[in-house]
């Protein structure tokens, strides 16, 4: 019954933590492709191939349902995977959908025409590859009209977080927010379009100000997963044990993961 969670590095642990808290009975297998992180500076073909390899590894662990807890992979690879690569008995879900559900206040199963929503000015903070894909804007357009999205590529933030340099990460966040505010002075909402960014969410909120509602993914993904599994329980796989896998150095990744989540995590080599 295990569910797989894939990320290019450690950011997806924020999603895993939220899912584990909401669904403590559910075995989770996490795979971090730390050998190839970050994905945000890679081209689409490279991201597609690396993501497919990671998802295949999670299938080997008995995970018929895999969450791409990586916005870059969701933006650059998910649509192509679902259209050309995915077997009929497997499912791969991205992390954009729960955010758009929350932002537009409508369920993804609602296939009525796009309509006006309360929020008109949205700031999107994401990796350069996610911003370049325009995947968020494309998916949002299926559900809402009249929403102005200003996207800011946040180069360097993921690297700083992965290196454990909180001071640099917060300084970069402040700089990126200031750059976006020069183009959109009064956003009503901000989307943190990277699963690393909840680790510096307070810095985003401080730079944006108290009047901007900040949408962060982990809790939204955890809620959406519960709803999905109620509707599609057949995609609970055969795996029955929680594991943490990495393509990188297990000892080094375990140390960083423990710092991120503030409880011990032991990674194994994938």
Automatic annotation (TrEMBL):
Provides the (R)-glutamate required for cell wall biosynthesis. Belongs to the aspartate/glutamate racemases family. The keyword Isomerase applies. The active site is at residues 70, 194. GO terms for biological process: cell wall organization; peptidoglycan biosynthetic process; regulation of cell shape. The keyword Isomerase applies. PANTHER family: GLUTAMATE RACEMASE (PTHR21198). One of its GO terms (molecular function) is glutamate racemase activity. This is Glutamate racemase. Keywords: Cell shape, Cell wall biogenesis/degradation, Isomerase, Peptidoglycan synthesis. Its EC number is 5.1.1.3. It comes from Paracoccus shanxieyensis. InterPro entries: Asp/Glu/hydantoin_racemase, Asp/Glu_race, Asp/Glu_racemase_AS_1, Glu_race. Pathway: Cell wall biogenesis; peptidoglycan biosynthesis. Pfam families: Asp_Glu_race (PF01177). It catalyses: L-glutamate = D-glutamate. Substrate binds at residues 7-8, 39-40, 71-72, 195-196.
